[in-house]
TrEMBL record:
Catalytic activity: Hydrolysis of terminal, non-reducing beta-D-glucosyl residues with release of beta-D-glucose
Active site: 159 (proton donor), 352 (nucleophile)
GO biological process: cellulose catabolic process
Recorded family membership: Belongs to the glycosyl hydrolase 1 family.
GO cellular component: cytosol
InterPro entries: GH, GH_1_N_CS, Glyco_hydro_1, Glyco_hydro_1_beta-glucosidase
Regions that span the bilayer: none
Protein name: Beta-glucosidase
Any Pfam family hit: Glyco_hydro_1
Record EC number: 3.2.1.21
Any one GO molecular-function label of the UniProt entry: beta-glucosidase activity
Organism: Streptomyces misionensis
Length: 437
């Protein structure tokens, strides 16, 4: 990958938000001190996780959070995006942990930015059930009531697209369903939950609310009309389906007709105004017409019956996860959103961007982050209103169906001893933040 990593990064605006991200299920452990989630049920089933592991201990952040906050302070970030475990909050004393964590962050001068749902749905709930959206609003109200005196920036949901596609359509993630297009109600109920959460946060006095949606450019495999049409469908399904109800108050291309309930009334809730829009970016997707055979993409099996096929992006370096490294795709994505949504797009925060590489001297990660920050700055120069950037992730962690085989952290975690060791990328990012002031 071509990079200017030896040269200073261009200057980002004053007040820019610099942070790192984690999620509760992936790092907290202490599973015995909370109720079960769909991920606990999923990982208990043989064959669901590639190395047979669970997140029962993970990084033991629940007990080691002071050490992890010290790592944040040493890194020099001004914000930390973590998630609040719904099953933990629903358990006796669960909110006490987040009370302690937020106090520790504030004492260290790090702004707490909680995500209120990051895939760990309580095991007795189901996103196919509309009532789950109302239960989520209750959860949000409880968290805001407890933490809202210190938390000033909130995220409702993380990546409802992946939770719908991987968890409910393809069965690769919890809860492991293979519903294909019958999973669309899951998307709608998550979006409704987002809108209800915005209302609950506003009622609690919150004034800085966003969502963390995953997005990436969709590239047709060729100029053939069938490939172009398949890519357009994929873009609708993975990008527009989750952006446009929130930003425009409507579903694209007649998809609203496939959603359950009073969709028009629900869309008025879903489209509650946001203060900013979160984007998780990893890579573009190259898409063509269906090939009539099963495919593999990012470790996930793509069924033959889908109306598209995912193809390799050639002549690009790959991360250890096999994901292509395409930093300019971030510029393309953000400029495309600006052009597509105009003044309906609020200020943008990159809520996740990162890569999986082995080793403590992780020069590949340094090159990756450097190139993506330059691509982000190019979008700023092109007029996109970007207000912040969060690296995924602070710690090596439980990487969902991959178990502990993928390492996204700036800090290495020995999963036998739980010892934390900052990597070369941690020191590099620390120096970047110092240079940015």
């Amino acid at each position: 990958m071509a990079t200017d990593a030896g040269d200073p990064l261009p200057r980002f605006p004053a007040g820019f938000l610099w942070g790192v991200s984690t999620s509760a299920h992936q790092i907290e452990g202490a599973a015995e001190l909370r109720g079960p989630s769909v991920w606990d049920v999923f990982t208990a089933e043989p064959g669901r996780v590639k190395d047979g592991s669970t997140a029962a201990v993970a990084c033991d952040h629940y007990h080691r959070y002071p050490e992890d906050v010290a790592l944040l302070a040493g890194l020099g970030v001004n914000a930390y995006r973590f998630s609040v475990s719904w099953p933990r909050v629903a358990s006796p004393g669960g909110l006490d942990f987040y009370d302690r964590l937020v106090d520790e962050l504030c004492a260290a001068g790090v702004r707490p930015v909680p995500t209120l749902f990051h895939w760990d749905l309580p095991a007795h709930l189901d996103w196919l059930d509309r009532d789950t959206a109302a239960r989520f609003a209750d959860h949000v109200a409880a968290v805001a009531g407890r933490l809202g005196d210190r938390v000033t920036k909130w995220i409702t949901l993380n990546e409802p697209a992946e939770h719908t596609l991987l968890g409910h359509a393809l069965g690769a993630h919890a809860p492991g369903r293979r519903l294909l297009f019958d999973a669309l109600p899951v998307a709608h109920h998550q979006l409704l939950a987002h809108g209800l959460a915005v209302r609950a946060l506003r009622a609690a006095g919150a004034r800085d609310i966003g969502i963390a949606n995953s997005h990436g450019p969709t590239w047709p495999a060729s100029a053939d009309p069938d490939d172009v049409a398949a890519a357009g469908f994929y873009d609708t399904l993975l990008n527009r389906l989750f952006a446009e109800p929130v930003l425009l108050g409507g579903y694209p291309d007649g998809l609203g007709e496939l959603m359950p309930g009073d969709v028009a009334a629900d869309l008025r809730v879903i489209a509650e105004p946001l203060d900013w829009y979160g984007v998780n970016y990893y890579a573009p997707t190259r898409v063509g017409a269906p090939l009539g055979t099963r495919g593999e993409f990012g470790g996930v099996t793509i069924p033959a019956e889908l109306p598209f096929s995912v193809r390799e992006i050639e002549d690009r370096p790959l991360t250890d996860f096999g994901w292509p490294v395409v930093p300019e795709g971030l510029t393309e994505l953000l400029c495309g959103f600006r052009d597509r949504y105009g003044d309906r797009l609020p200020p943008v925060v990159i809520t996740e961007n990162g890569c999986s590489y082995e080793g403590l001297d992780d020069q590949e990660r340094i090159a990756y982050l450097d190139a993506h920050l330059r691509a982000l700055h190019a979008a700023l120069e092109a007029g996109v209103d970007v207000r912040g950037y969060f690296v995924w992730s602070l710690l090596d962690n439980f990487e969902w169906a991959e178990g502990y085989a993928r390492r996204f952290g700036l800090v290495h975690v020995d999963f036998d001893t739980l010892e934390r060791t900052p990597k070369a990328s941690y020191r590099w990012f620390r120096d970047v933040l110092r240079a940015q002031g």
